[in-house]
Fold:
Amino acid sequence: MKTTLLLILPILLLAGCAGPARYVDPETDEGPVTMTLDYRDFEQAAAESVDSLLASGAVDNPNGGRYVLVVSRIINDTMQRLDTDQLVKRIRTELLNSGRVATTTAVGIDGPEDEMNMLARTLRDSEEFDQRGVERKGTLQAPDLSLSGKILQRNHRVGREQQVEYYLQLSLTDLTSGLAIWENETRVIKRGPKDSVTW
Amino acid sequence: MQKRHVFLLTLALAVAILSGCAAQHQKDQMTAFNAAWKQGDYTAASRAMEAPSSLTGQDASEDERLLELLHQAEAHRISGDTETAIALYDEAEQGIKMNDTRGSGAKMLETGMAVLLNDAHRDYTPLLSERILINTYKGLSFLQQGDTENARIEFNRADDRTRRAIEHFSDEIQAQRAALQERQEGENSEDPRKASILNSLKSDALQSTVENHYGRFSEWGIYSEFMVPAATYLHGLYFLASDSGDLERALQSLKRVAGMEPEHPRLAADVRLAEALARGSVQRESIEPLVWVIYENGLGPVAREVRFDVPLLLLNREGDDPAYTGIALPRYRERTAVEDGFRIEAPRGEIPPLEPFSPMGKVIRTEMKARFPAVLTRAITSAVLKTTLQDVAAEKLGVLGRYGSAMLSMATTRADLRSWQALPDHWQVTRMPRPSSGQLILANHSGTLGTLDLPDWPYTLVYIKRPSTLGGIEVDLVDLQGRIPGRHLSFPGSSRAATAVAEAHAPVETQPR
Structure:
């Protein structure tokens, strides 16, 4: 009996090490920090960028109304397969919520984000559709501003650890003049074991 | 007591036999791979490297089948199946990560097994040069798919692995200095086994025996700084072609490679181009479309076993009873390059000939020189322990114990000969403006092997891999800017075959996926 218990005990202890599935509150999540970029880093970078942009006044339209923003290329220059859209989406959402900017989905660097913009216009000659509801020519809004950027990663060794630095660099270009009217860099710096690579 | 010792000896012999069976399986697997690889039968080459299932019937974990994954991935890449190649290379990277982040307990256990048996009992740990090439091949595969974003990530990873490798070598040099210091203090160690190991390592007799069998390190032709020039070069080319403000990085990589191969005219020309673009003295728009041809030639080095007796300085050993005191070390031997006058021609006008660079033998020697002290220390430690065990066995079991344990020592003394054998002997490179005809001709001593129709891209890479003359010539046409998916073409390896095949078929073309 004792032997059986001695055999089972370590198994039970090991099983106890893995926690059950549970919800995590993003606001208070103090889970382990990874060397990769995680959702907390995305949230922090997005929040800092939006705060900087709104505080700069670059998106305040002196004529009233909202500027139309297009998201240009965001280059992922890291060592990780990131979904840059995920990061940009948070920025777009917060800018939209600020009431000062609207984002166009009708044009984009790799084609329109929402192809329905053009597809809906192909209904113009269709007898099957009530033409009063079909979009007329010349209604799509051209963008005033373009948001572009780069996410950089630089790794260094710091003593017996490695330091990984992520930089989110964003530029806002006035498409009328071609001038960058706002730029910002948000840094996320992490330090951890150097046993393995950071991806 | 006697029965217990006999049982232990029998158990040890069983372990030795099982370990021998595993080594034989691995040898057979590599023989089958190499036979298919040389013939250009990459499907068979990949099949030969299918990893055996674990005892539970599940797939073994990535770290346990790392060697198989590397060979299979490259077999798929060379035959144009980039999607599978990327998936397999991803698994291999996962395996490396599992290896690197293993807990200290597991690492100690593995080192213990290596000392008691041999290095081949450790999970396969790829050379640093192999790790760098994983990401380089993945980068090429993504470019082939027209996926520049993921290609950039892989070239960044290859660059980071190079940085880590340089740091690793710096650590190794420091560790060697510390070990030297420890050896000098070895005589004072109170632990007789430790003193035996340290004294043996520092003895002139051992150093001279190792040099006799292994060669003098000072005569090894190595690079002054660790890198895989072909990987750093491709990193440089990718960023040279990129129009996202990466010219400084391109220049840095191209300069480093040219610095390692100072007499290479093509590499120097690329540095001049990158400098002109970075300075702004040449505008990107004014450059005519450029074509680089990179040719991966032949079969890379493989490890062979060098086995010899070493003079051990054993303390507390009574008498001069015979004992097996051999060690087995891996020694890389170069295989063959394809020497059939392979060249690139244009229908009209001359193009600069392919110039060799980045010999894998030199890359591996550079790495092995740094790794060797650790390998030798493990081998000597193992030899000292095995000699001690032989003495104990002789004391307890008499002649049977003496000879049984000596046979066991001999059977378990093996070098770790595993390596990624899908790598080339060396690379060659040339660059030219896109010929006006839009065509390049592949030829060798016996005539034309095939004709390439070049796409009209600003920066085209023609990436050729040819392990031997028996197999075909595998060609990838790659848009270095990664905007357009590339094409994969296969040509027969000899002109006679080319004529025969050309009459029947157009070149085999794999549609981009």
Remarks:
- The interface with chain A takes residues 96-97, 100-101, 149-150, 152-153, 156-157, 160-161, 163-164, 167, 244 of chain B (CB under 8 Å).
